[in-house]
């Protein structure tokens, strides 16, 4: 049997630097744990635009469809701000999500004990925080038609369409209930059913799916109140499920609560492929951080933890994922810190590659 | 000349209780400061539904169009959750906003010194915080067509439409720039121009309006990053301008940062009327809080500060507004607290009406 395959798309900004550390980790698992992967690498985002004039080449898209898992670094940078909407770096990412049909975006917001002080929130509010946000990722206002800027009378109008079918809501909800079953069996669904009909349908379908999960305690919250409650008392949540746009904002809000932005991974999962594995892409929650790119300052942990999620969700290697996560916790407990994890008076930070090396050592 | 007119719509939940305290304050200004108002009162939300079968009667709508300012308490409650979308309490509020064409919703997020400890954020992150969020209030996905739940093949689809014309963006932007000119001359506009064409048009129009305000330092931020930055370092902002839906979420997030939710007022302003005053409605940021309604526990300050905003923005009585705000600060500095402003071991809270009385005393 051939090895499972991984396509690495480092992308822009700090993407290539942090991905180099992930490769070390992948190699370690091949050499020491008999878990070899066939790894290939390609371009996405601005890097792809520079070479091909598009943020994702068709051949790259085809490769992504064939592999067992995609690992993505980050896309975007000021250099590309002037580009036309249709070829902006983000379109490459959105094309991957859409064409691979990665409908369930899992975004853990976890506060690492060693880092709780980095949160802007009081320590007791966030210490031990462990939320999972499930964001619908292939529909809603990100992809709905009609969309565009049109002439109307003697002015222009900008239009986007929020659009959710029952089956789109259902599969995202099901993914969230399944996760809740493996966690603390609490699910909160967020929408604006008080002002949007798409939110009414969302609430109705989530409620119906909930009948298949009687053990899960289901609640509903308006998304604006959701933002408030995340700030006020985030530990009230276990799993949250919400649509593409609310998920974008609420998951970023939740990520920032932890103070551990450079530490947060994500998984985007689709339907099972012929081999039983889900279509899957893994990426850190942080962006391309152009201000520190190329300086060896970036924290590779979010990207390495994204590979841990791949071990768990794509390759059924939960124990190996835990091994990797534990190694990272150990390194942090030892006081090893990249610059983003330090206060001004906390001594000398390690570089991106030193952090990678320390994690390999701990493994 | 007749007195300026105010229509009071207490609404549901704690609305009537907090509004009773506002009436005391209005009466005080009439008796002591020679500022008499013609005050009338009517129903909105669930209270209107109970009497008329609709959340806002046509006669009430007509009255709201005629008065100089509307003061609204809060709408909604679990009793009305089962109602059809078209007659839910929220529809009364949305009808007022839309038909009065109140396009600029001003939501200050201010952290009161005496209350900084109540924030879930660290004190140094929020102490002295003073942001103004300008939310577009009459367009976007709240009102765009097509909208509804439709049959499609053998399932249903929920649709809402985000829709912004150049002139709608322009007038909201102008209101925000005008405010920035009176404050610290910094404006941050938030959208998702990286994924939504309506966001591209938004950014373009705001930038163009900015040419009329060369003194204002204008920046743009994606709304998801905006949520992060609000949590990370809210004091970086002065005025924020954003659309109806992002404004709903981001302003609630900002409000919760302050720890002073029971203290935050808002103003919703439209075009000038024949008498030069803007169409205007004032309401607290908090909701109807059905869990504590009728118990005399609610904090009336947000609603009283909404009247202070009315003094400032509708009646050109900035000095009297400041007088009222100063009285409230004094009462807080004296340690007078409603239950929401106290920890479990902080002694005995005052009731809603005692808080009102203390403010009158301080005046
Ligand atoms: C880069 C951008 C297109 C993307 C989004 O809006 O989904 C990002 O913010 C995210 O959350 O992954
Ligand atoms: C009550 C509701 C319709 C309203 C809104 O969504 O605008 C509220 O959340 C607000 O922010 O004023």
UniProtKB/TrEMBL annotation, chains A, B:
Annotated source species: Thioclava arctica
Location relative to the cell: Cytoplasm
Domain Isopropylmalate dehydrogenase-like stretches: 5-359
Description of how the protein assembles with itself and partners: Homodimer.
Entry binding sites for substrate: 97, 107, 135, 224
Cofactor binding note: Binds 1 Mg(2+) or Mn(2+) ion per subunit.
InterPro entries tied to this protein: IsoCit/isopropylmalate_DH_CS (IPR019818), IsoPropMal-DH-like_dom (IPR024084), Isopropylmalate_DH (IPR004429)
Function text: Catalyzes the oxidation of 3-carboxy-2-hydroxy-4-methylpentanoate (3-isopropylmalate) to 3-carboxy-4-methyl-2-oxopentanoate. The product decarboxylates to 4-methyl-2 oxopentanoate.
Keywords in alphabetical order: Amino-acid biosynthesis, Branched-chain amino acid biosynthesis, Cytoplasm, Leucine biosynthesis, Magnesium, Manganese, Metal-binding, NAD, Oxidoreductase
Protein's UniProt name: 3-isopropylmalate dehydrogenase
Gene Ontology molecular function terms on file: 3-isopropylmalate dehydrogenase activity
SMART domains, A to Z: Iso_dh
Residues at the site labelled Important for catalysis: 142, 192
Pathway info: Amino-acid biosynthesis; L-leucine biosynthesis; L-leucine from 3-methyl-2-oxobutanoate: step 3/4
